[in-house]
Design brief:
Length: about 150
């Protein structure tokens, strides 16, 4: 069985979907990565949310932004696959869905991301190229990457 995706604007998320999203983001970005930072950043309201479900459980997620909302180009952020499902390589399905969502919702193909450095090869496999030196974001090494 594969992931089932829902793509929704913030105002269309149910309370249950919003709670699942915030729980998964906290589980990965705050607890697993041991990083205290402000995840609820007032950007969710502008974003298109990509939710990946397996057996009705939210296991993959990211958010999409139009050009000018975060970077000059459209962007993808908060890319997550729950730890217990990473062996299934569903991050690839999530990125395919996210890139298609940028095209569908914003009509754009140029995408900029702030990628955790250790995921550089993963993002390169989806057509992104490194466009900056390493920088720290919330004490985690990141690089800017772009896709045309």
């Amino acid at each position: 069985m594969s992931l089932q995706f829902k793509i929704k604007r913030f105002k269309d998320l149910s309370i249950h979907e919003l709670y699942e999203t915030l729980r998964l983001r906290s589980e990965v970005f705050v607890v697993e990565q041991n990083c205290v930072y402000q995840d609820i950043d007032n950007k969710d309201q502008k974003a298109i949310h990509v939710l990946g479900y397996y057996n009705e459980e939210l296991v993959a997620y990211c958010r999409l932004f139009d050009a000018g909302d975060y970077f000059d180009n459209a962007s993808i952020g908060r890319v997550i696959v729950a730890r217990k499902f990473r062996d299934k390589k569903w991050g690839n399905n999530l990125m395919i869905e996210a890139i298609a969502g940028i095209k569908e919702y914003f009509g754009k193909s140029n995408i900029t991301i702030s990628a955790q450095l250790y995921l550089q090869k993963f993002y390169e496999s989806h057509g992104f190229t490194k466009t900056s030196e390493m920088y720290l974001e919330d004490d985690i090494p990141h690089i800017e990457m772009k896709k045309s």
